[in-house]
């Protein structure tokens, strides 16, 4: 028995190394797709880039959630320049579902040296039947241009496989106290994203979430939810839309990214 175990160790090690290499390759391909998307936005324009890289059933927020191709397809091409790059990325163990997030800048005209707007975007990607990566859902959040700073790309390391259920996901999505963990990225309008572990006090628990849609990776280890929210009293508080990315950690869903975007009319 000991001899058999000893002989099987090299095979197990090779298997783990192969899986890690496959994951690293798939994640690199996802990030390359994001970089290509951003390059197309600069070279061909915002509308053309989104129409090329959005999946047919993609959801975008303009500002309400809607079909992305219908939303951008009905808009004229803008003269503004939108540029961005990924700062963080992760991929499901199914290797066909993942997310990217990072800073973006907006310039009223392509030749402008100074940006007029800035923020962080959040995109969930899905590999299509033809093998191409396409954006499944996308939402951005803004902060003052004075807060712009350079970010270095940081791929997220793989973790031991864990699975979550749709029932648990939808139950946790509407909790007043969200299931954060130390590395959860929290986005809020007007402020630079930060990690949950950097908080000195707990986030507000007076937010009412209404789930409008969700999706789970084929490996059931990553997911997203989106919907509307009210912060404070109904009819009086801040309203807007949210996009959350989740990961199954230790058998339960934990927030990876929490993004709230208030309605601008408030």
In summary, what is this structure?
The protein is of the alpha+beta class. It contains four helices and 14 strands. The strands form two sheets. Strands 1, 2, 3, 4, 5, 6, 7 and 8 form an eight-stranded mixed beta sheet that branches.
- The low-pLDDT segments are 4-17
In terms of quaternary structure, the protein is single chain
**N-C termini distance:** 70 Å
Instruction: Give the percentage of residues in beta strands.
Output: 35-45%
Overall outline? globular
CA radius of gyration is 20 Å
Helix percent band: 10-25%
The number of strands is 14
The largest pleated sheet is described as: 8 strands, mixed
> By helix and strand content, what is the structural category?
alpha+beta
How many helices does DSSP assign? 4
**Order of SSEs, N→C?**
HHEEHEEEEEEHEEEEEE
Topology (SSEs and partners):
Layout (H helix, E strand, L loop, with lengths): L1 H43 L1 H8 E8 L3 E3 H6 L7 E4 L3 E4 L5 E11 L9 E11 L5 E11 L10 E2 L10 H8 L11 E4 L2 E5 L11 E10 L5 E10 L6 E12 L2 E11 L4
Parallel strand pairs: 1-7, 4-8, 9-14
Antiparallel strand pairs: 1-2, 3-5, 4-5, 5-6, 6-7, 9-10, 11-12, 12-13, 13-14
Helix pairs in contact: 1-2
Characterise this structure.
The chain is built from 4 helices and 14 strands. The chain has 266 residues and is of the alpha+beta class. Strands 1, 2, 3, 4, 5, 6, 7 and 8 form an 8-stranded mixed sheet that branches. The protein has a 6-stranded mixed sheet with strand order 10-9-14-13-12-11. It is globular, with a radius of gyration of 20 Å. The relative contact order is 0.14.
């Amino acid at each position: 028995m000991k001899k058999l175990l000893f002989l099987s160790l090299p095979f197990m090690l090779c298997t783990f190394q192969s899986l890690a290499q496959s994951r690293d390759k798939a994640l690199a391909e996802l990030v390359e797709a994001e970089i290509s998307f951003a390059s197309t936005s600069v070279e061909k324009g915002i509308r053309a880039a989104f129409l090329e890289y959005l999946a047919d059933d993609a959801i975008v927020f303009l500002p309400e959630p809607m079909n992305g191709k219908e939303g951008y397809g009905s808009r004229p091409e803008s003269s503004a320049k939108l540029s961005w790059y990924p700062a963080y990325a992760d991929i499901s163990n199914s290797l066909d579902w993942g997310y990217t997030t990072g800073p973006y800048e907006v310039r009223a005209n392509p030749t402008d040296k100074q940006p007029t707007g800035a923020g962080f975007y959040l995109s969930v990607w899905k590999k299509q039947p033809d093998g191409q990566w396409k954006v499944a859902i996308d939402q951005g959040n803004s902060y003052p241009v004075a807060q712009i700073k350079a970010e270095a790309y940081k791929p997220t390391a793989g973790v031991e496989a864990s699975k979550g259920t749709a029932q648990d996901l939808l139950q946790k999505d509407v909790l007043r106290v969200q299931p954060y963990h130390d590395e959860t990225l929290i986005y809020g309008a007007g402020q630079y994203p930060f990690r949950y572990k950097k908080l000195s006090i707990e986030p507000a628990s007076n937010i009412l979430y209404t789930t409008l849609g969700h999706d789970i990776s084929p490996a059931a280890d990553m997911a997203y939810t989106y919907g509307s929210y009210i912060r404070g009293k109904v009819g009086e508080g801040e309203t807007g839309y949210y996009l959350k990315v989740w990961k199954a950690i230790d058998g339960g869903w934990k927030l990876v990214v929490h993004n709230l975007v208030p309605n601008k009319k408030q």
